[in-house]
Amino acid sequence: IADNTFQGCKNLKHVNLIEGELHETIVALLLEDWKNYMNEEINSIYQILSYTPAGDDFGDVGGKARAIRRWIRSVLRKIIHYKAQHQHVLEEAATTLKLTLPQDIVIKNVLPFLELPSYTFELGDHEDEEDDSEEEEEDDDESSY
């Protein structure tokens, strides 16, 4: 998303995520706290956009596009983290179950119900670099006050 994509869009306060992989993965997370935190993170964009300047017709591009990019990266980082946590808990549970139940029962009848959808969420290398440069810009802006 180019920085000037939403220049002048003062009424942009809402972003709809397309139903799909992200929502299916959130629903499949083991802990309610994880699900709730992910939903709070997704909904945080409404407040972020409400207070983010839209820019004007005189060269100020505003910050809505950068805010949306940061928000998307934040959501992706968190879902990647929770998927890893989910996998860790799943592996611990499988190890315990294999000690008490025959391994074929665990593998065929238990683990498939605990696994997350196989979707992959990734942040590209350039997105991490962009995030770092945006954070540096924010630090520079804050130190100038």
Helix content: 55-70%
Low-confidence stretches: 135-145
User: Which class best fits the helix and strand makeup?
Assistant: mainly alpha
Mean pLDDT: 75
Q: How widely separated are the two ends?
A: 28 Å
- Largest pleated sheet: none
This entry's quaternary arrangement is single chain
Radius of gyration: 20 Å
Beta-strand proportion = under 5%
Shape: rod-shaped
Number of helices: 5
Question: From N to C, what is the helix and strand string?
Answer: HHHHH
Q: Could you give the count of β-strands?
A: 0
Overview of this protein structure:
- The chain is an all-alpha fold and 145 residues long.
- The protein has five helices and no strands.
- α2 packs antiparallel against α3 and α3 (64-100) runs antiparallel to α4 (103-114).
- Residues 135-145 have low confidence and may be disordered.
Blueprint of the fold:
Blueprint: H1 21-28, H2 32-50, H3 64-100, H4 103-114, H5 125-143
Helix pairs in contact: 2-3, 3-4
Features:
145 residues; mainly alpha; 66% helix; rod-shaped
